[in-house]
Design goal:
Structural class: mainly beta
Strand content: over 45%
Radius of gyration: 25 Å
Number of strands: 22
Largest sheet: 16 strands, antiparallel
Helix content: 10-25%
Strand order of the largest sheet: 5-6-7-8-9-12-13-14-15-16-17-18-19-20-21-22
Order of helices and strands: HHEHEHEEEHEEEEEEEEHEEEEEEEEE
Shape: globular
Length: about 475
């Protein structure tokens, strides 16, 4: 290559990066502004140019791209491939913003220019943890009592070595105690296809759920001191040989000890007269992820299949085999309208299970909107959630920080309507008013999405019991 051509290439790259940094974001994100000449049929990727990464290794960014140096791509597919690359790089959750644009060289080659803005990776996070399943339960059932709060600190480093490895340590005191650590290294081999997770912790609780009432409310056992001690250790092997498919093989070991009165008065808690148990747990998890934003998806799909075996014996104590599957569809429509369908189901075998193995609807993310104050135990369960929403506002508030990446806090607001349907089967001896019948609810709400894709949902819902209320999720 002549010196003159080298100079011209350098000027083109510099100009492209200048556009990344100084044009309005809408201009940079609209990759459809780049039109290929009609005569081009095939393009060869000559080079990939990456800028903006200070902590993150360049090969971690390259690993997320569907195109490599030397690949050829049809001209009509270039923009779609670059948008796919932008989504996969952004979904590492390492960056505030990612821009991917083509730089055409002659009539049969192109360079791909990638510019990233890194997030803050080190966080000392104050912990304010509720004893209850949700903010709604804490407020409505316990009048937001601070006596039910645990507090502490969590130290998090989300990019320890620049390979998207994460380390966290947590210390909590108050209504419960928790000392735990977690280290996740998703790319621990030279080909960046395998990884490991190691974590463990010790927990104490002054209150535990011991049964579910016929009215689908949790019955608690508590004293003035700790009634449950537990510790656990886990190791996992991660496999991600492509971009969309992820596999996890994990092994855990648990020790749980409860107050003697728990198993005396609630014998189904462990299905054993013993007040302490030790047991292993094995799990295989398969995921397919192809969405525009893994933290708040608007377009694409995700799939999940998992098999979990708790304990080694069959039909004894808390032994359980559970199979879980789910699929989520996300659709982007014209004029900033979006919709989604989320389906999930789980079955636990054998059906006769200890109380701590019967959890189904109402825990974590497995809830029906409008039924947040209830829990529904089940041997098997199915849920489906439908949403239609529209972006109604997008703005940023200045922070007055001397930082180009953090000089503003962005906000996006979506108005939505939703409907949920669910079914949870359990044997007659554990039946409640919400088991073994079709459940449905609906409502309207707002999603407020801000920096790091943190989301606050404010939802007004109505269920088939004709109960209505305003609920918060974050």
């Amino acid at each position: 290559m002549s010196e003159k051509n080298s100079v011209m290439q350098g000027l083109l790259v510099t100009a492209t990066i200048f556009l990344f940094l100084f044009l309005p974001p809408s201009a940079c994100h609209s990759q459809s502004n780049f039109q290929l000449p009609d005569t081009l049929k095939k393009l060869r990727v000559r080079n990939i140019i990456i800028s903006g990464n200070k902590q993150t290794k360049e090969y971690i960014i390259r690993r997320e791209m569907p195109l490599s140096v030397g690949d050829t791509v049809e001209a009509s597919a270039v923009l779609a491939k670059l948008e796919e690359a932008r989504s996969f790089i952004y979904n590492t959750t390492l960056f505030l913003d990612v821009k991917v644009l083509p730089l055409f060289i002659g009539d049969d080659q192109l360079d791909i220019v990638v510019h990233v803005e890194e997030r803050w990776y080190i966080f000392p996070i104050p912990v304010f943890q509720l004893a209850d399943r949700s903010v709604n339960e804490w407020i409505q059932k316990y009048n937001a009592s601070l006596s039910r709060v645990s507090y502490g600190i969590r130290f998090l480093h989300k990019n320890v070595s620049g390979r998207n490895d994460q380390f966290a340590i947590t210390a909590i005191n108050g209504y419960s105690r928790n000392i735990s650590f977690n280290y996740r290294a998703p790319y621990s081999n030279p080909s960046l296809t395998e990884g490991v997770i190691v974590d463990g912790g010790f927990l104490q609780s002054m209150e535990i759920a011991v049964k579910t009432s016929t009215n689908n409310e949790i019955v608690h056992y508590k004293k003035d001191n700790f009634v449950r001690d537990a510790w656990y250790a886990r190791g996992a092997y991660l496999s991600r040989k492509g971009l969309k498919k992820r596999e996890t093989f994990s092994f855990s070991f648990y020790h749980i000890k409860v107050d003697d009165s728990v198993t005396l008065y609630y014998p189904t808690y462990f299905r054993s007269s013993k007040s302490s148990l030790d047991f292993p747990e094995f799990e295989y998890r398969l995921q397919f992820i192809n969405v525009d934003n893994i933290l708040y998806p608007l377009k694409g799909y995700t799939s999940l299949f998992s098999v979990n075996k708790r304990g080694l014996s069959w039909n004894k104590n808390i032994d359980r085999l559970s199979v879980r599957a789910g699929h989520n569809f996300y659709f982007a429509h014209a004029n900033k309208w979006y919709s989604s369908i989320r389906l999930s189901g789980e079955i636990k075998l054998p059906f006769q299970q200890a109380f701590i193995n019967r959890r189904a609807i109402g825990y974590g993310e497995d809830y029906l909107r409008g039924y947040e104050l209830y829990v529904i135990d089940a041997a098997w369960s199915l849920t489906s959630k439908f949403d239609v929403k529209k972006e109604i506002a997008s703005f940023a508030i200045p922070t007055f920080l001397n930082s180009k990446s953090y000089d503003r806090i962005p906000f996006r607001i979506y108005a939505k309507s939703f409907a949920d349907v669910g079914y949870a089967y359990i044997q007659d001896e554990y039946d409640s008013r919400l088991n073994n019948k079709l459940l449905f609810s609906g409502g309207v709400g707002l999603d407020i999405v801000t920096i790091y894709d943190l989301k606050l949902s404010i939802e007004f819902s109505l269920n088939q019991l004709r109960q209505k209320g305003l609920f918060l999720h974050y």
